[in-house]
Amino acid sequence: MTAPILLEARGVVRRDAHTASTLLAHTDFLLAANERVVISGPSGAGKSVFLRALALLDPLDGGEVLWHGRGIERREIPRFRRCVAYVRQRPALIDGTVEDNLRYPYSLDAYRDARFDRERASRLARAAGRGAHFLDKRASEMSGGEAQVTALVRVLQLDPEVLLLDEPTASLDPETVLAIETLVELWFATDRTARACIWVSHDPAQAARVGRRQLTLCAGRLAERQENLA
Description:
Layout lengths: L4 E11 L6 E11 L3 E5 L6 H8 L7 E6 L2 E2 L5 H7 E4 L10 H6 L14 H10 L16 H13 L5 E5 L7 H17 L5 E5 L3 H7 L2 E6 L2 E4 L6
Parallel strand pairs: 3-8, 3-9, 6-7, 7-8
Antiparallel strand pairs: 1-2, 1-4, 4-5, 9-10
């Protein structure tokens, strides 16, 4: 049985607003349920541009993004972003504690039907190797790794269907890299048939661990690698 297509890019184009240079050339892409895609490529090749385009975080200069085979109207974008979560390399945290940051999404209209579950958040933090008092830690006292764990837990507790991970482990220590990978694996394990992930990584060893399909992006052009991961 063919897995359903969750996310699709049809002829998506992005250009620099100031220079009109092409950041992302005419791009077609399909992401099916249960897929784990890794994208590699040199710095400045357009990897972040591509993920942000898929998340509809930046205006498109051509083409469209489809969700479950449908175009997305402007009024539907907040709901869409609830399902398709973009996690950037340098997380943005608010002042306060880890728990304050985890509670923040529930103050937004898109999550007005959901409630913060401290015990669930604690379980996710423990899965990442964080202690019992991690949720009480101040954001100003966190390391870069702790901030990234917080940002990922903040997303995972909301049960997205697609994760767009923009080098979430860059410059982190090996222990925290493993913690981030463990959290993503745990997220997959809870529902393997209806979730998918795109992970941007420069680390070939990590790509082999977290991906099943490899793409490259160079000079704004996306291509499938000849040798996919087993």
